[in-house]
Each structure stands twice: as structure tokens, then as C-alpha cells.
Amino acid sequence: MIFFNYFIFPGFLFTAVIGMLASWVDRKVTARVQWRQGPPWYQSFADFIKLLGKEVIVPRQNRRLFLVAPLLALASVTVVATLLGRSMLRPQESFLGDLIVVIYLLTIPATALILGASASANPLASVGASREIKLVLSYELPFLLSMAIVILKSGGLIRINDIIRYQMVNGSILSSASGAVAFVAAILCMQAKLGFVPFDMSEAEQEIMAGALIEYSGAPLAIFKLTKQMLLVVLPIFLISLFWANNLSVMWVILKYVILLVIIILIKNTNPRVKIDQATRFFWGPMTVICIIGVILALIGY
Amino acid sequence: MSHKVVIPIGPYHPLQEEPEFFRLYVEGEKVVDIDIVIGYVHRGIEQLSETKHFDQVAFLVERICGICSTSHPFAYVNAIDDLTKVEVPQRALYIRTIIAELERIHSHLLWLGLAGHFIGYNTVWMWSWKYREPVLDIFELISGNRNHYAMMKPGGVRRDIKEEDIPRIKKCVDDLVPILNMFKGAVMDDPVIQARTKGVGVLTKQQAIAYSAVGPTARASGVKIDVRKDHPYGAYNFLDWNIITQEDGDVFAKLIVRVLEMYESIKIIRQCLDKMPKGPIDANLKDIPEGEGIGHIEAPRGECFHYIRSDGTNRPIRHKIRAPSYMNVASNKVSAVGGTISDAAITLAAVDPCYCCTERVAVFNKGSDKKILNGWDLIKLSQEKTEKLRKEIFNK
């Protein structure tokens, strides 16, 4: 059973398939916004299979780290997907503090990207890696603060399923003032975690030619891309279960997921890429201030 | 402690559509110095021009650039008209002006799209290229071609603009105004775009003059130069329009100059269509006498200069071309230094560089041990490679 959970549903295979479909929705909507045709629905699958068949070129500086990094990213996202799915479907098997484990695991894909980029010893990749480090440092602070608001609102719960059950009884956290503030901050942090415009500076193709990913090819590149696509499922579902879990029937979850996906795509298509210093200033400035106001609101009961 | 790293932009880079090489010396993200290497698309146009007769040269120089493809022929025919002192019919002057201004609109829209792409705003890219399409359709209507119009001819123009086409041209130009208003609102008032372009890649007025910047690059730095006013050609003398200048010299100022210039172009085209007299379109030039002529025009990117010398035969004995990007690209040496890598990407693009226009000469360092190959050597190399590949295939 546990193997089924990790590898088939709701872990690796299920999340990967949904993620590829979500990434197709992203590409298609983006294309339609830009008056293009867009790819057919199976494009992400075709891309993945094609990349698997390509030659893998490994820079000779640190071969092992270079190849382990994408697997590390994929494994962490798979574990997050499994934990989230199990806490929704089989709450009796979840453990206390899984929220904190998930928050930790969600930083691993970015860390793996930094490790892989540094292992390649390419100057453009090093610029990409340094940008990714700064970006992680920037968005983690408001992200953690918004998680703190959720914990405060729910009365100190750190088990995801407890937070979901609290919301089913007392209404979603999103409906309170502090919860709404935290949700907005969390969406923007999610955009940065996904590496989408306006926070895609670590891969900026026009400036540093894919940056952190520049030396990756073939299967490792496919795995990094797949990780990004799985994050496109895992992160919105994570936010839904923390902020918007008043009703978690299948139809509602799908509807809420699509709404979040549309928000992500719209932010992506109506903004230019910001510079890394501007991103840091944005997350440490206005976003952190908003989150601290949210924490205060939560403490006084709004 | 300083640790300099070289970030290469080019010769093959997804940013630029043409091969060129910027060597950015960076400390962290900060650009401390820049080397500019061009010369990858040198095609020997000037030499080629001396082997063609005067009518053919107009077609040849049209191929110098794919975007501002009427600028070079326009400057060339101005040079010939200057050489022969021919009286060009009024209608031809107006038609030349209309074509040049339509081209300015499509070139500026193209740049606007690319600028959006360079700062990662692909929606602006796709939208501005979509709205550029109707302008290309008008070119097709007038000349039969979307990009190489072949309208210019020494002493006149090759094709007339038909009376029945004028309403459609007017409608296209009228339709552009709300689109430009939309871009003005969406692009110029967007706080994130302002954050990316304001104060970035500043070229001060003194620097612009020192580097002899031309066109929108100079005008955005407050240098009020425009060949159309300073040395009127075509029908610009009979029309009412303004030179757009900005004082700041940053990328945002260049953006504003280009967007506002499109409004001026629309004004010019409308006046031309109303005022255009009837009559012949060609002075039927027969002989090119001995002598020399200079023609320069305001291309979308700045002053485009042509010099022609004739010895009385049917071929030029010297043809000198200077494209605007040649002056503007060099100004990156001051404007890109001091910013970050992200700034450099948009700063390098803000002069609207056109490398294949620029490259008139290739310089080789004879002292180095690199072998210089001439045309025959290259053909020989190519034949050897074909032979090698053939053998490999047969051996399999």
C-alpha cells in the first residue's frame, strides 16, 4: 500500500500526469493570450519522452552531484505529493508536524537546482545559481510568515489534516482578514517557487540562456522539467488545503485548483521579469510588512 | 576583493537575432566593462555594388537590411539625385515619404515587441507583432511585397500608389491610433516596466554627442537631430510634424521616443495622402554623369548615409555606406557599464541594433598566427568536407 501511495497514487505517477496536463493548460492559455495557436494536449508528454531519448552530456567537474541533483528534486516533490494526498485521503495515517516536513521538502527543489548548477561550473549557471539563492532567501521569509498565520488562526495546529478539519468546522482560513492577507502573500511566493515570470530570473533565457539549467541535457533535464510540472500541482493543492479547505469534495478541489492555476498563468502573462534585487526588495519589503500585519491581525483574532 | 567573470552574450545567443558578440566583464551581477565584437555578417556589399549598374544597386542595397529595407535604397537614390541634379517629380517624393514612414512604424513596432521579449514580457512581444501585420499588408497592397518593396529608383519610384488603395491605407493608419494608445497606456504606465527601464542604461547628452549617436538613441538623450528636419529630403519640407526628444537618456526615454514617433509618422502619412499631387512618378533618368553624390536619410534607427562616385560609366566606382547602428552600438560601451546583467540585456537592445546593416569592413590582425582564408579557400574547404562526408556514408 505504501509503495502504491508513493509511486502511483497520489505520489509520483498521478502527480506527474496531472502536472504535465497542467503545464499544457499553462502553455495553451499563454498561447491564446498571445494570439498563438498553442500545442496539442500531449505536448508535455512528447517533450518528456523526447528528452529521455537525447544524449546526456555531463560536465566533468562534479559528475555525481550534477546527476544526483535532479533526482533529489524529483524525490522531494514526490514525497510532498504523497504526504499531501495521504493527509487528505487517509488522515489516520498522517503524523504530527507533517506541515513542517512539507515546508522543508518544498525548499529542496530550489536547493537541488542550486547544487546542480554549481556542479556544472559554467559561469552562466553560477549566475543563475546565485540568483536562485537570493530568490530563495527572499521569498522564504514571507512564505514562512504566511504559514505562521495559518498555524495561529487554527490554534496551533501543525498537522495538515487537523488544519483541514478545523476549516471544515469553522470555515476556511481564507475568509478571515489575516488569512486573506496570508493567502495573497503565499500566492506570490508560490509564483517564485515555481520560477515563473516575474520571478524566473534564475533561468532568464534572454539574459543568461537558461542559467542554472544551461548544462543540463537529456534525462536529467527532463527530470528537472518534470519536477517543475509536479510543483505546479503540489503547490496549489498545498495552498488549498491550508487556506481554502472548507469543502474538499473532488469537484470543489478541481475547481479551486483551476482557479489558482488561472491566477498563476495570468500573473505570468501580464508582467515582465523583475531584476533579482527588485525581487528581494519586494519580498523583504512590502510582502514581509503585509505578512507581519497579518500575524498581528491573527493574534488579535481577525 | 574583486573577482571578474566573463559573461558572453553571443555570437549565438537567444537574446539577439543576429550574430554579434558582447563580452560582459561582471563582478557578481554588476557589469564593470564590456567588449563589443562585430563582423560576423560582413558581406562585402560595397565591393559588390561596384560590379552592378546603377539600377541594380538599388535592389542590392535593399538587401542590406531586412527590417528597414527601404532606408538604404532611399539614401542611395538621394545620392544619385544629388549626383545628377535631376528634378524628381513631386508625386514620387510623396510616395517615397509614405513608404519611409510606414516602414518607420513597422520597425518601431518590431522593436517594441523585441524590447518586451528582452525583459521577459512575451505578451507585449506577440501583441505588438500582431499589430504590425496590417502595416505589412499595406506594403503588400502597394508594392506586392511585405518586406522588400523595391519602390525606390534613381529619379523616381517604381510603382504608383493607386487612387483606389488610398482609403485602405488611411483606414489602416487610423486603426493604428487606438492600438498605439493602448500600448502607451499598457506599456508606459506599467510600474513593473518602469522599474525595469527607468534609470537603466543611461546615455547622457554629452556621451551621446561624444559617441556620435544618431536617431532615437540620440533624441532620447536630448540631442535634437533628425535628418528629416536638418537636411530635408523627400516631401518632409512640405509637411508639418515635430521632432520627439526626451532628456533622460535611459531605456524608458528611448521607449517613449519610439512610441511617440509612431504618432508623428501617422501624422506625416495622413498629410502625404491628402497633399499628394497627380502627375508622373519617374524622371526617366538616362545617363549618370561623372561626379559624386551624397544621400542621407533618417532611417528608423538614425541617419543612414550613402556616398556614390561615378566616372560616367554605368557603374559606381565607389559606394560608401554608413548605417545608423554603426554609431549607436558603440554607445553601449558607456551605457551598459555599471548596470546588472539584466540591465545589460535590455540596454544592448535599446539602441535597436541592426548588425548586418552595420558591417562594411572586416579587420584582421595580420600579426596573429591565424590563417586568413579567402573565398577560394573556403570553397576548397567546403568541397573537402563534402568529399569526407560522402566517403563516410559510402563506407557504412
In whole angstroms, the N-to-C terminal distance of chain A is 42 Å
Biggest sheet character of chain B: 3 strands, antiparallel
Q: What is the mean pLDDT of chain A?
A: 87
Domain count of chain A: the total is 1
Quick one: CATH superfamily of chain B?
Cytochrome-c3 Hydrogenase, chain B
Describe the structure.
The complex is a heterodimer of chains A (302) and B (396). Helix content of chain A is 74%, strand content 0%. Chain A is mainly α and 302 residues long. Chain A has one domain. Chain A is globular. In chain B, helix 5 packs antiparallel against helix 6. Chain B has a single domain, classed as Cytochrome-c3 Hydrogenase, chain B. The model of chain B has no long low-confidence stretch (mean pLDDT 85). Chain B has 396 residues and is an alpha+beta fold.
Topology:
The complex is a heterodimer of chains A (302) and B (396).
Chain A: H1 2-7, H2 12-33, H3 43-52, H4 63-89, H5 98-120, H6 123-153, H7 160-170, H8 177-194, H9 205-208, H10 218-243, H11 250-269, H12 276-299
Chain B: E1 5-9, E2 21-27, E3 30-37, H1 45-49, H2 54-62, H3 71-84, H4 90-118, H5 122-143, E4 152-153, E5 156-157, H6 166-188, H7 191-197, H8 205-210, H9 215-219, H10 227-230, H11 251-275, E6 290-299, E7 302-311, E8 316-322, H12 324-330, H13 332-335, H14 341-350, H15 355-358, H16 375-395
Antiparallel strand pairs in B: 1-2, 2-3, 4-5, 6-7, 7-8
Helix pairs in contact in B: 2-3, 4-5, 4-11, 4-14, 5-6, 6-11
